Amino acid sequence: MIVSKQKELDEIIKKIKGSVFIFGCGICSDTSRTGGPKEVEAMKGILSGKNIVVEGTYVIDAMCHIQKVRKAVRDNKEGLSKAQTVLVLSCGSGVQSAVAALPVGIKVVSGVDTMFLGNIESLSSLKEMCSLCGKCVLNETGGICPVTLCPKGLLNGPCGGMKNYKCEIDENMDCAWVKIYERSVIQNTLEDIKKTAKPRDYSAKKPAATLKFTGSHK
User: From 11, 112, 129, 130, which residue has the greatest number of CB atoms within 10 Å?
Assistant: First the structure.
């Protein structure tokens, strides 16, 4: 189970361009109370109150399941065709599932910070797309995570070892920062990656983390 916390509302709104479609996650984000049906409906109300047009909402039972995300994209084609931004109330893996399933011209915005992993079982194949670092930088890097997809976790562009757009650690691996740059060009968001990122605050990733709820969740 992946635990997350919602980003500050002002931070989310700053990243939204035009009208928006909201995706939630019915498993982990629902349990964390950051992106289940109640939170998606609440976010719709908040954004509408800020005069942001919400073209539609949909809660996928597992945002990290890319095939389910692709089906949800097909099933919500009408609403998504009107939206300039897709807001994902899910972990970093769910955000990147949306990035993979949607046309590259649609801006994907993360609405939560991924905190830590509770447990996973009965999966025969996994690909790591999120390091659960506690402070997502996806809104600044086009929805592609350099902390995880760059073996060196670089936050300010590619290293000197990148060659022919490939990683020096593995020549079969695309350089994460090349992919980030390409998406930024298409989406006209180069200003985001021109800013120098501050050193990572590792206090956001605490060992033996816990999350306690108060009150009931129906």
Answer: 112
